[in-house]
Design brief:
about 425 residues; alpha+beta; nine-stranded mixed beta sheet; four-stranded antiparallel beta sheet; elongated
Length: about 425
């Protein structure tokens, strides 16, 4: 079970740092500095503006208490202890259509009983999850790591690459997780190289057969790796697998589902509709060279286009289940920008030897690709000879004025079709 707290914490006399929410068995860092203009107005002090906090912590089935603790002038102190009587009231509020869908189709949500166990694959492939860490708040990094630890599929490794973060608590925080689970491996880079560089560093260290990139703050569904492993066991020729996703807020509420179609190479040229999660075969990802740092503004789109060029449409599959929860707030620099998108598509056209122009699309993150036809463009006209004069009149209304030098007469059309019995060009 999990308890979430949303509120504010401020005192003008002391400096509060390292806020954490603790239960009898677990603890988790709090998200701080959330704007609370109502608190600042109440106290009449602008210093109380960014005093909002949010946190979610695991608790036993029958918890006695949860505590909010912090470092006050260098000493750890309990700010408040909240008793829990074991009967938690759940606020239902307004129920959205997607929430109703989740209740009907996902019986293993937070407030639902655990599902019956599913037998794991006989030879489960090791999956390497790549998680960069830089300046994201510990709360978001914690949520991503917890979502991996909750996976019902045990054959995974989590490769965390710390990109020269300036957060003094980050190293000790990650080292505690690494010591607690041998499947978690952390690498600390002395010089910051960007998110793409962090992903590529994790890729070089990964031992898994498949690679799953995870953005800090985003969360995997508890069944994400198991569903992926079962799918790959049935279709081992898959080079890239993607599934559906939705958004999650700081309190764990899911919304804005993105149900995706089967792989469509033309649609991928308009915008990155695949998004997350993706599981890419490691040898295929190494073959394309991983992420490109020069495409950081659209790095995921660039990677998918380069993988699709090599893997082909037949090895790209879609798993129609929402197995990824994207954080609404993005601090990773993964959002698309127009110059990066333009470069991604122009590079794709160069690699595929196609000519055309790239323009900004109708909505943010989309582009419009206008391809130029080849110098020799032949048009096929298909018709039935028994249509006679009526078919001739229809063809005359088209822009084609001749068929291989034949004069467009009823006799000519009948002779061409009957004698050759083929599509006339």
């Amino acid at each position: 079970m999990e308890i979430g707290i949303l509120g504010w914490c401020w005192t003008p006399q002391f400096l509060l740092t390292a806020l954490r929410l603790e239960s009898e068995t677990h603890s988790a860092p709090c998200l701080t500095e959330i704007p609370r203009p109502d608190v600042a107005a109440h106290f009449g002090d602008p210093a109380a503006l960014n005093t909002g906090i949010a946190c979610r912590v695991q608790v036993p089935d029958a918890p006695n208490w949860v505590r909010l603790v912090a470092e006050v002038d260098g000493e750890v102190q309990t700010l408040v202890e909240i008793p829990v009587d074991g009967t938690l009231e759940v606020s239902t509020g307004a129920v959205s259509t997607y929430a109703e869908w989740l209740v009907l189709c996902e019986p293993y949500l937070f407030s639902q009983p655990a599902p019956p166990p599913i037998d794991p694959p006989q030879d489960p492939p090791l999956v390497s999850i790549l998680l960069p860490a830089h300046e994201s708040p510990l709360f978001y990094l914690h949520r991503s790591i917890i979502s991996v630890l909750r996976q019902r599929h045990p054959s995974w490794e989590l490769r965390i690459c710390c990109d020269a973060s300036t957060d003094p608590e980050l190293r000790s925080y990650l080292e505690r997780y690494e010591q607690g689970d041998p499947r978690i491996k952390t690498r600390f880079l002395p010089v910051a190289g960007g998110t793409s560089h962090a992903f590529n560093t994790g890729l070089s260290d990964a031992a898994g057969r498949y690679i799953i990139p995870l953005v800090p703050g985003d969360e995997l569904h508890p069944a994400a790796l198991l569903e992926t492993a079962l799918f790959l066991e049935e279709q081992p020729e898959t080079g890239l697998l993607y599934s559906d996703e939705d958004q999650i807020d700081d309190e764990g509420h899911r919304s804005s589902p993105l149900f995706k179609p089967a792989f469509d190479p033309d649609l991928l040229l308009v915008f990155n509709y695949i998004g997350h999660p993706i599981a890419i075969r490691k040898d295929l990802m190494e073959r394309v060279g991983g992420y490109r740092t020069e495409c950081d503004g659209a790095r995921d789109w660039d990677l998918l286009l380069r993988v699709s060029e090599i893997a082909g449409a037949s090895s790209i599959r879609h798993l129609p289940k929402p197995l990824y929860h994207a954080r609404g707030r993005r601090d990773s620099g993964a959002m698309l920008d127009v110059p990066a998108c333009r470069k991604v598509l122009e590079d794709h056209m160069t690699r595929t030897k196609r000519a055309g122009s790239v323009q900004e699309g109708l909505f943010p993150g989309s582009m419009r690709l206008s391809l130029k036809p080849a110098s020799v463009c032949r048009t096929a006209v298909i018709y039935r000879s028994e249509d006679g004069v009526h078919q001739l009149q229809a063809i005359r209304r088209t822009r084609s004025a001749a068929l291989e030098g034949y004069e467009l007469t009823a006799d000519t059309l009948r002779r061409v079709c009957c004698s050759e019995s083929r599509v006339t060009t």
